[in-house]
Amino acid sequence: xxxxxxxxxxxxxxxxxxxxxxxxxxxxxxxxxxxxxxxxxxxxxxxxxxxxxxxxxxxxxxxxxxxxxxxxxxxxxxxxxxxxxxxxxxxxxxxxxxxxxxxxxxxxxxxxxxxxxxxxxxxxxxxxxxxxxxxxxxxxxxxxxxxxxxxxxxxxxxxxxxxxxxxxxxxxxxxxxxxxxxxxxxxxxxxxxxxxxxxxxxxxxxxxxxxxxxxxxxxxxxxxxxxxxxxxxxxxxxxxxxxxxxxxxxxxxxxxxxxxxxxxxxxxxxxxxxxxxxxxxxxxxxxxxxxxxxxxxxxxxxxxxxxxxxxxxxxxxxxxxxxxxxxxxxxxxxxxxxxxxxxxxxxxxxxxxxxxxxxxxxxxxxxxxxxxxxxxxxxxxxxxxxxxxxxxxxxxxxxxxxxxxxxxxxxxxxxxxxxxxxxxxxxxxxxxxxxxxxxxxxxxxxxxxxxxxxxxxxxxxxxxxxxxxxxxxxxxxxxx
Length: 480
Ligand SMILES: Cc1ncc(COP(=O)(O)O)c(C=O)c1O
Description:
Blueprint: H1 10-25, H2 29-45, E1 54-55, H3 58-65, H4 69-81, E2 85-88, E3 92-95, E4 118-119, H5 132-145, H6 160-174, E5 183-186, H7 189-202, E6 207-212, H8 216-224, E7 228-235, E8 238-239, H9 241-247, E9 251-254, H10 268-280, E10 284-288, E11 312-317, E12 329-332, H11 335-349, H12 354-365, H13 368-394, E13 399-401, E14 408-413, H14 420-429, E15 432-433, E16 435-436, H15 447-451, E17 453-458, H16 464-479
Parallel strand pairs: 4-15, 6-7, 9-10, 10-11
Antiparallel strand pairs: 1-3, 2-3, 5-12, 7-8, 11-12, 13-14, 14-17, 16-17
Helix pairs in contact: 1-2, 1-3, 2-4, 3-4, 5-12, 6-12, 7-8, 7-11, 13-16, 14-16
The structure holds pyridoxal-5'-phosphate.
């Protein structure tokens, strides 16, 4: 039944709200209130509860969800204060008339900060390292060689030549079990996520677990497919198992090689537990291998997918290795999901542009991609070392973690630099762009955590010579 608009709450609104909020209601007691608020906020933001919809009374909703009435009242009050809901004396609670999508949490896709004197916002590689000459040569080669018929509509999975080259690459570099028949070429992890979201929705799945802290991208993309993100805490081994089990979700998004943003690598034990969980609930794990290509001084951590290709959807892209503007990525889907995902890809855009695919296939086949990865790897390791050294010099006592891989680190500054709000204001005034870890958290920090300062510092796009200067500026501002 649809929610009622501008009328009595009735059964429609109650059952719609009930369905949307059900996963949050089964969150662990400690986080249930916040989960409920997050799910309700997301339902309003995404338009699934449209402006003007009247919500059930707190008593009815609490009874439907099997939670205490106080939790529902608190959620209504909080969202009313935030402007998502409005309430009138004795007239119930409504979705606000002019709800605008809320400001996203700090976003990887945020444009770089143009006026900043130093910019450590994570998310982009060094675009100046884009291999223009090799790319142009591959482009010329493809235009000269491509048979006419390959300019027709492509196979929605992608050109066979590219899927074969990708299968070789992913098996070799990431330990993926890579059957070209189960690869789908997509326009990035973002599209892979959306396709999976639609496929989950078609199977009746309405909730997906996401890492907390995690990438804000995931929540928004699943919401666009009608699937609600349920935040699950990350501990030092990966996504925490008990909350995952208790949440009742049957799909979970993970970043096992280098958790975004904390930078930890999932432990071998947690990987095994996660796959056991997936098998036991007939569920699925989405592995977002967004920066798995970059590792510096630790043994390679192979993809989770290699351990159980039937329960993992693996996805990656060239957004960190070449440039996000190329919009080019891949997903590897278990056999039981392949048909559904490919059909979604077909109906979405009739397949990825063939010229781009042929070009990338040639780039891979000729070893240009491996060369690019090696070149970036060297540059990024130097930058990482420069950042760690600068933090050590200018922020004595700072703890730097997540440094073994990827394009960002986490810096935990000693208490004296806090509280976070003051630190961020001072640093921003000095023209240094940074993101706190809290910007990626679904669950607000407790008072103790809020006292400290934890930063997610992206370094890949900052030339080595400018890293020390940026950190010095930041330290000067923080203590000044
Ligand atoms: C966690 C995470 N996954 C995926 C991506 C990349 O998405 P796409 O491949 O669509 O560019 C990003 C981009 O910054 C990210 O931070």
